[in-house]
Amino acid sequence: MNVDVLIAGAGPAGLAAAIELRRLGVSRVLVVDREAEAGGVPRHSAHTGYGLRDLHRVMTGPAYARHYVRAAVRAGAEVRAGTTVTGLSRSPSWPGLPGGPEPAADATGLTGPARPAGATRHAGGPDPAGAPDPAGAPDPADAADVAGAPDLADAVSPANAAASTGPTGPLSATLTGAGGIETVTAAAVLLATGCRERPRAARLVPGGRPPGVMTTGELQQRVYLHGQQLPGRAVVVGAEHVSFSAMLTLAHAGADVVALVTDQPRQQSYAAFALAAAARWRVPVWTSAAVRRIAGRGRLDGIELADLRTGAVSFVGCDTLVFTADWIPDHELARLAGTQIDPGTRGPAVDTALETSIPGVFAAGNLVHAAETADIAAVGGRHAARQIAAALRGTGPPRTARIPVTVAAPLSWISPNAIHAGGPPPARRRFLLRSGTFRRTARLEVRQGGRVLATARARLVPGRPVHLDAGWMDRTDPSAGPVQVTLQ
Amino acid sequence: MAAPPEAADVAIIGAGVVGTAIARTLARYDLSVVVLDAATDVGTGTTKANTAILHTGFDAVPGSLESRLLRRGSALLRDYAAQAGIPVERTGALLVAWTGEQRRALPEIEDKARQNGYTAIRPISASGLYQREPHLGPGALAGLEIPDESVICPWTTPLAYATEAVRAGVRLRLGSRVTAVRAGPGGHALATTRGTVKSRWLVNAAGLGGDDIDAMLGGSGGFTIRPRRGELIVFDKLARPLLGSVLLPVPTAQTKGVLVAPTVYGNVLLGPTAEDIDDRSDTDTTAAGLAALLEAGGAIIPDLTGEQVTATYAGLRAATEHRDYQIRVDSRLRYACVAGIRSTGLSASLGIAEYVVDRLGGAGLPLAERSVAAGPPAMPYIGEAGTRPYQDARLIAADPDYGQIVCHCERVTRGEIRAALASTVPPADTGGLRRRTRAMNGRCQGFYCAATVSAMMTAARSAASGGPATDSGQAAAGRPSPELGRLA
Q1: pLDDT digits (tens, 9 = 90+) for A342-389
Q2: Under an 8 A CB cutoff, do B444 and A196 touch?
Q3: Which residues does chain A have within 8 Å of residue B309's beta carbon, measured at their own beta carbons?
Q4: I need a surface site. Which of A149, B120, B128, B438 has the fewest CB within 10 A?
Q5: A108 in helix, strand or coil?
Q6: Hey, which residues does A295 pair with through a beta bridge?
Q7: Residue A139: what pLDDT?
Q8: What CATH number is given for A199-325 in this structure?
Q9: Among A100-104, A224-228, A321-325, B112-116, which is the least confidently predicted range?
Q10: Which of A15, A84, A331 to probe the B interface (max B CBs under 10 A)?
Q11: Using the beta-carbon criterion (under 8 Å), do B404 and A202 form an inter-chain contact?
Q12: What is d(CA A80, CA B354) in angstroms, rounded to the nearest whole number?
């Protein structure tokens, strides 16, 4: 099977990208998801608050997921659930591109009909989707939702074009599902595989290994997809947005939530949300507290909790323990494909076009910024779609050397984490950052070599996004080395 | 309770790798055999939590029973594994000396290997080590190569033995803790938590409880079990390319050191610690243990510390005050004591079984071979080296459940879970299902699949309570194929 774009992951980013690709006239868009149902994490996140910045309305997670799946199908994308990408490599049949042993990252761009060599456009040319999407602007994807799949007169179909000349695409993916094992060649691939919470083992929490210890992802599926009840006492580890969400899910499942515990000195969600939750469910947030040991054999007895200020250790009995946040991108496919990994985000390193180190392989959503809200993931997916469409048309920016964008502690990551001369601004004209510490008023400084490109004010809260306007991109010097973002 | 006591020619206490191996060996003869275990599954004690290495026995104490049975057992198990589909990879091992003292110990180890009948051992230079293992940390001085050391699946092994035994008529009575043993005119009367069992002969393969059982028979054994706890860390599969062989430490007077080994599931294992403890059920991991392992592992393979931890666990070795196995057969009591099988039980299991059964025969147990032998069963293959069901197009075509990946990290399909739930020795809980399929054993530790897998387990249980579970073992062709979930 040949497609123009293969999208791995049918969550908000992947589906928003599919809708936008179809709107831009890309013919064959295949979205696969390994879960039995498309829609991604919002499927089992029953609370409201979804859709604010991408759909300009507010709905629950499941409704939001359904909306995107339907919209993608209406837009003419093929959405296939229960299908895993079990392999991704350069297509061996593709002439002019290395097939196997040579590292794919060495390839210097897509060649052949999918993207004729040299068919680049001048730096600073118009974005194929029009002006970059400023936050809050009316959304073209909404039009697509309503109107259904537009059959643009000037629709491009690189796969069709290629079919007449032989091999059909530079990337080859193996898809595995109940229908069998299939090889799909694609002119471009978008990785939108999302992120997950690190489990207790990855956090090296010692002790016993009884059942009843889980992540929010597992909790939500148990409660909202399988209707499980979780009677007894529960403790939530973490005090970010998702931790409060876990608390709501536990309450819904009949649990008595004892506390949210965090090793941070303060909770990290929005104050109003935290206060409301505390008042409504009378759940305290225990700060500067760390889980030292999980007690229980065969069943969970409780946890040993250390007060980081005094060193005192106390025992808290519970029947359920939920580890929240501490996100890590689901980067297996990206790593197996050989994309360069950013040490900060731990997802594939991407430039402002959301292209990875492998030409033709793009990445969006929480794979490149774990974790942002679903609407931000969707906006990123849409941004990637525009860049992919331009690359397929041969109207993308010229492929110049990547300039890495790095951060230093206490900043933990920046996304995207590379730019190039003539490259587009990132989605919403902003870079996203994370901090490891609280700072009420911080000053970010963007430097390249000895030169300060920009400074910006920011409030730092661990686990919460920090935004950096991309205006400084024009002032970079392609030959002056990496750009570094630090605290002044 | 009033049910008449169950009678057998031989009762084996302990369904670990040693007990099931003996059961499987006895099943070849015209005897009625019952296996008792306090746990609800086979292989839940020392058997399930170890370093998963199929040892050659090169470093055993020359002339010891352990040396002899290890050498014999490891050869037998290699053949058996090939027939039964137990995952084994002959990775070879490199014994690495990091200090002058360790380096000086190498010739003696080489000499000992030859005394143990293992002649393929050979010295390897520092440059040879780095050529073989480019990710090895700095400071390796010299080493020994043991080309036949292998890694094995410690879970499939006792399951294969038990499956073969049960299919040959051996009764497996799990969840039956032996509380007292009385000698009577007809033999032994074993009081268990689930009724009485009478047997003419008794085999004590109770592992960590070996001395307790021995005491019930008069306490003539002359040994005490002092559990030695070993903590281990399992690294993400993405770490697997960091090493090719098992990397063994050189034991010195001060420290035994830890090893780094590939696993047959495609992970990397680091451990074990060695700590003598009193509590025979304390399989907790500790902060100190995990920290020590990470430090040691970081010196052996520095890149390992950059990879994610998938799981941590601890196992208890049934150590005694003696260095050798404690195997005795008492013809007067018609009793075999098989104890002190410290950490080589998996590798030696078939050698131990052969030896014990031979000795029982010598003590008067009638060993009349059955005319029809069952032979090794075909176990579901859960290793990475061979073809997994999700990679088998023909299997998926015959049964689409084998294309439906449920556990994404380990790529376990619905078909495999279904088959495990209906197998000859079915799992009693999700832990048992993990050991049979690898489901939920991966990096997300259930974030994605635990809820679904638990639901399958519950459904299978309620179906089983309605009627007897069928023993399908492998794919049942012609089942209605589940919805593929194709939305477009």
Answers
A1: 999 999 999 999 999 999 999 999 999 999 999 999 999 999 999 999
A2: yes
A3: 201-202, 204
A4: B120
A5: coil
A6: A302
A7: 41
A8: 3.50.50.60
A9: A100-104
A10: A84
A11: no
A12: 53
Instruction: Give the residue on B whose Cα is nearest the Cα of A223.
Output: B451
Judged by DSSP in three states, A348 sits in: strand
ipTM for the complex? 0.91
Interface membership of A304 toward B (CB under 8 Å): no
A279-292, pLDDT tens digit by residue? 677 889 999 999 99
Q: Domain containing B109 — which CATH number?
A: 3.30.9.10
Reported as type and span, the H/E element at residue B434 is: helix B430-437
**Smallest Cα distance from A111 to chain B, Å:** 30
Q: What is the pLDDT of residue B227?
A: 93
Q: Is A225 on the interface with B (CB under 8 A)?
A: yes
One domain for residues B395 and B456: yes
Predicted TM-score (pTM) of this structure:
0.89
How many domains does chain B contain in total? 3
Backbone angles phi, psi at A249, to 5 degrees: -65, -40
In a domain, B377, yes or no: no
Q: For chain A, which residues make up each domain, given as ranges? A: 2-196+328-399, 199-325, 400-488
pLDDT of residue B183: 84
Instruction: Search chain A and give the residue with CA nearest B390.
Output: A176
Residue B350: exposed, middle, or buried by beta-carbon count in 10 A (0-12, 13-18, 19+)? buried
Domains A2-196+328-399 and A199-325 share a fold: yes
pLDDT digits (tens, 9 = 90+) for A240-254: 989 999 999 999 999
Grade residue A163 by pLDDT with cuts at 50, 70 and 90: very low
Tell me: do B308 and B241 sit in the same domain. Answer: yes
Flag if B308 and A198 touch (Cβ within 8 Å). yes
Contact list in A for residue B283 (CB cut-off 8 A) is: 208-209, 297
- Is B197 a domain residue? yes
- Residue A109 contacts B, CB cutoff 8 Å: no
Cα B364 from chain centroid (whole Å): 30
Same domain, B332 and B459: no
- The reply to whether residue A221 touches residue B452, judged by beta carbons under 8 angstroms, is yes
Give me the domain span that covers residue B131: 93-147+228-317
Q: Are residues B218 and B234 in the same domain?
A: no
A487 HSE (CA, 13 A, CB side):
20
Looking at the structure, do residues B420 and B329 belong to the same domain, yes or no?
no
Does the pLDDT value for residue A67 go beyond 90? yes
8 Å CB contact of B485 and A81:
yes
Higher pLDDT: A152 or B115? It is: B115
Distance, CA of B320 to CA of A328 (rounded, Å): 44
Tens-place pLDDT, residues A90-149:
765 543 333 333 333 333 333 233 333 333 333 333 333 333 333 333 344 433 333 333
Fold classification of A2-196+328-399 (topology level): FAD/NAD(P)-binding domain (3.50.50)
Whether a cis peptide bond, with omega within 30° of 0, leads into A416 is: yes
A69 interfaces chain B, CB cutoff of 8 Å: yes
Task: Confirm whether B30 is domain-assigned.
Answer: yes
Give the per-residue pLDDT at A107: 32
Low-confidence ranges of chain B (pLDDT < 50): 1, 467-488
Rg (CA), chain A: 23
Q: Taking Cα atoms as reference points, which of A299, A312, A352, A296 lies closest to residue A127?
A: A352
Asked if A112 and A170 count as a contact pair (C-beta separation under 8 A), the reply is yes
Predicted pLDDT of residue B220: 66
Chain B residue with CA closest to A209: the answer is B284
User: Are B290 and B326 members of one domain?
Assistant: no
Predicted pLDDT at B473 = 32
Three-point CA angle A105, A108, A110, nearest 5°? 100
Distance from CA of B397 to the nearest CA of A (A): 6
- Please say whether the beta carbons of A377 and A365 come within 8 A: yes
A–B CB contacts, 8 A cutoff, strictly below: 145
**A403 - beta bridge partners?**
A419
- Comparing CB atoms, the residue among B310, B445, B484 nearest residue A179 is B484
Residues B126 and B247 in one domain: yes
Best residue of A204, A222, A326, A335 to probe chain B, by most B CBs closer than 10 Å = A204
Residue B233 shares a structural domain with residue B305: yes
Q: Given an 8 Å threshold on Cβ–Cβ distance, is B281 in contact with A297?
A: yes
Does B239 fall in a domain?
A: yes
